Amino acid sequence: MLLLVGYPEPAVSIVRSVRRDPRLAGVLIGAPAGQPDSAEWAAVLGSDGAGVPFLRYLPAQLDPLGAQVRDQLQAPLGEPPSFVALAGYDAIAVLAAVLRTDASWAEVAVTGTRGPIRFARPPGSAGWQWTAPPGCGCSPSAPARPGSGASGSGSST
Fold this sequence. Notes:
Oligomer: single chain
Shape: globular
């Protein structure tokens, strides 16, 4: 079951309901938007939230820009930001570069928090995309924090 829903609700209620229904004991829950990467996920769901695979778009170690942005965001958040916050920073950096230079997507080259960002149009695709973001599929029993070097028990992609 893929959780393509809002967080914390209805994601938390759905996970709790699935975990408590014996008829659904064999159902694997996945959260592709990375909700299990937040400390709140473990705090709210406890063992019900363990073992939920998700995608984490982070390198094993953040480069200097990534570490700087992580540290700047950590102060107001009170905890390290998730990869989603770094993705948001990168999106703004890309848009600023496009607007500042009037570059086409093919010409965009930005240093992001998670590495260099360049766009390509994969065969058969109608849109431009960052085709090689760092990432891994993770299924931790407790979420690892960004930039900690931990990448869950999933395999890198």
